[in-house]
Design goal:
With 180 residues, the chain is mainly β. It is 2% helix and 46% strand.
Amino acid sequence: RCASLFLYDVHNSLVEENEFYYLSFEGLKLASGNDNVMRRNYLHPRDWATSFGQAQVSHISLYCCGSIQRNILQNNIVEGYGYPVQESANTSGVRDNQILGTLAINTPGMIIEERGGSTAKNTLIKNLVQLTGFSEHGGMKLWGASGALIENVTLWFNGGDAARGFIADGSCIEGDGGAC
């Protein structure tokens, strides 16, 4: 359960024009970092995670162990099994992040989630294109997100009973250690 590139407590940095393959759990993970830009990266697990029994991968993960503020994820391409972007709030420090111009191909959907009673605040999601043949959580699932602004999002599904477009609720994920 490790990331191909794990940035912890990193600030004012640029991660640009990289390719990540054979993801085991997360491709690009930022935990506790502010004012970073992750731009024009390509991520594809190449079925590596499923071959080891990993149920799901996150291509790009903003996972809060502290402050995750004013980060920009821009023009990234994610392909294959796994959430294209997962923003998880474990503390109140997840806020004002921007997810811009993401292209997601054959992924189950983007997730912005509440964990342990904290919510991601003021996330901007703009110019997202999601092309998929399946959907576990819908094209976009907001679990307890607060103040999210969503503009110009295209969700295309190739059928299936589980295909759900946009889901927003105030719940949290069972088993995350928080009160649901």
